[in-house]
Amino acid sequence: MSVVTQTSPERAAAAAPLAPRAGLWPSLAAVYRAQLSRARVARIPLLFVATFQSVGIMVMMRGVVHAGDGEAARSVVAGSSVLVVAFVALNLLAQYFGQLRASGGLDHYATLPVPPASVVLGTAAAYASFTVPGTLVTALTGCVLFHLTVSGLWVLLLVIPLAGAALSGLGAALGLLAPRLEIATLLGQLGMSAALLLGVLPPSHMPAPVGWVRDVLPSTYGVEAFARTLGGPGATHWPAVAGDLSVCAAVGVLSLALATRAYRRAACR
Amino acid sequence: MFVSTGTEETAAPTVATARDAVCTVRGLVRTYPSGRGSRLPALRRRAPGDTPPPIRANDGIDLDVHRGELFGILGPNGAGKTTLVRQLTGLLRPDAGSIELLGHDLVRHPDRAARLIGYLGQESTALDELTVALAVETTARLRGLDVPAARAARDAVLDELDLAPLAGRPLKRLSGGQRRLACFATALVGERSVLVLDEPTTGMDPVARRAVWAAVDRRRTAHGTTVLLVTHNVIEAETVLDRVAVLDHGRVIACDTPAALRALVADEVRLDLVWRYEAPLAVPAVAVLEPLAEISGRRWTLRLPQDRARAAVADITGGPAFAALDDFTLAVPSLEDVYLALGGRGTGLVKA
To answer: How does it sit in the membrane (chain A) (predicted)?
Structure first.
């Protein structure tokens, strides 16, 4: 690229003052609030569909899995609950960013003096927030259906934001990196399907290669952390829960950083 | 409204007037891989590399926009207007050339564009599911205003554009024109000394159009705001612009005041003939005009020297062809005629 620059000293001195940049946190808050408000307009896809899907899966699985504490029941309830997070934060967010990028909607943000991280983190945080009611409703319904204790449900207050960060970071990165909208949609769907199959089914029955795939899926660690607490606080191996949540957090940091880079690349060509 | 003298206007396109130049563009080139004409960035990014030569969407553009000017970029679809504007707003990197805006080198520092320009693009997907009020307030905050200032700016601009009754409605539930006006409101909040508006009045009714131009004029009067307007609407270009650059196939084919450009074809007039059914080609006065006409259904459009046009009208209205005539108009040339006279090859200009 050849660049012609003729900035003479007097012209440089005459350069107009630049308007201030928007700060990281204020603009993150503004993006978060704006995105959150979309739930009023797009209530059904953002809040209800994932919950219906997860509750439906649990009702179906109730036909083949016995109620009462056991690996299968825990897997179904924890997997279905985290599936809500995967559906919204991974699948829908990948589609959202894919669509924004394909339609030129990113231009709106790219022509404002806003840090890329504010846009990505604000949007990801909003999508993670959309999953809160659905995940809680699914977990409660699951505990009732499968006769599991609800005393450990508070752990969802950690699982949702951390798994939400990991999965929304991944969703945002997929949506922004996919060369076409269709591919962003496809990747989001595949990620969600993987979270469904590998999260809901009990891991001990899986063939080894499938288990490996399960191990590299970030949602698995959210499922594991929640599943460990479903036997009640006395029977919970807390260090393992902390370990699972740490994996979610680490994946969250990495994937959100990747998504921010992807946004920067997508916004200015 | 701002008016400049004719001498300044004619000198402007070729002389870099650092004195009052807000935006100076030199030799701007931007190419796209051919066969992928889509505006989608995702499609544009990965070129096959082996297929036909790239399309030069901007092919050596020079422009000088002066402070306080309402400067237009006119051209049919595909002329390279949006590509040019996307480079001016830092969204697209030029392959070659320079852009200086308010003393800042935008090729080297594209990120500065966001701190200098209020931009209205063609797409509203980022805002569609927000209410009008929140779309405007959020945009103000992302332009660096704090919450009280953003709310004050939001209320002021919604009142100014008469959007207050729609404030609580999501953009996607508005009509096309209303949505466009709401997007225009987002371009105004957090005042910038340069506004870049890409077809701002598309789909708007006359009331909304007037609101747009009134808001633009208020900013020019009060703050000396410079406005770059992209349009393919010749009527709009003639009525609101101080100067206009006519773009065709990625090149500026003319740049002057609308009046000066029209003077280029002042000895011509445009004659529109609309026939009731088929044109009566049996009448010699009509047959002789046929090769000169641009025919669109029952409408013939002719660009003729004034005396020739008068004679043609006299022949047709005074002879047997008059019975076959439904309507005719004789008009002074518009910018569309200028565009065609200058060798413009597109046919996408709109008169509305």
So the answer is: Multi-pass membrane protein
Contacts of B167 in chain A (CB under 8 A): none
CB B40 within 8 A of CB A102: yes
Per CB-CB distance under 8 Å, the chain A contacts of B117 are: 111
Containing B140, the helix (H) or strand (E) segment is: helix B132-142
DSSP-derived pairing of the beta strands B243-248 and B251-256: antiparallel
Structural domain boundaries in chain A: 23-267
d(Cα A148, Cα A201) in Å, to the nearest integer?
Answer: 17
Residues 79-98 of A with CB under 8 A from B: none
Q: Which residues does B153 contact at the CB level (< 8 Å), separation at least 6?
A: B136, B140, B145, B189, B190
Mean of per-residue pLDDT scores for chain B: 86
User: Cα–Cα distance between B123 and A186 in angstroms, integer?
Assistant: 24
What is the three-class DSSP state of B175? coil
Residue in the block written with tokens 């036997």: A231
In this prediction, residue B352 carries a pLDDT of 54
Packed helices A156-177 and A218-229: angle between N→C axes, nearest 10 degrees = 170
Our CA-based measurement puts residue B94 at a distance from the nearest CA of chain A, in whole angstroms, of 8
Give residue for tokens 């990495």.
A254
Residues 74-113 of B with CB under 8 A from A: 86, 89-98, 100, 102-105, 107-108, 110-113
Q: Divide the 269 residues of chain A into consecutive groups of 10 and give the mean pLDDT of each group.
A: 42 74 94 93 86 94 88 92 94 94 91 94 94 94 92 91 94 93 92 90 88 92 92 84 95 95 84
* pLDDT tens digits, B63-111: 999 999 999 999 888 889 989 999 999 999 999 999 999 999 999 999 9
Q: Which domains does chain B have, with CATH numbers?
A: 6-262 (3.40.50.300), 267-331 (3.30.70)
The pLDDT value recorded for residue A174 is 94
Q: Look up residue B251 and give its DSSP letter.
A: E
Q: Check if the interface score ipTM surpasses 0.85.
A: yes
A174 CB-near residues (< 8 Å, 6+ apart): A90, A94, A97, A98, A184, A187, A188, A191
Distance from CA of B232 to the nearest CA of A (A): 20
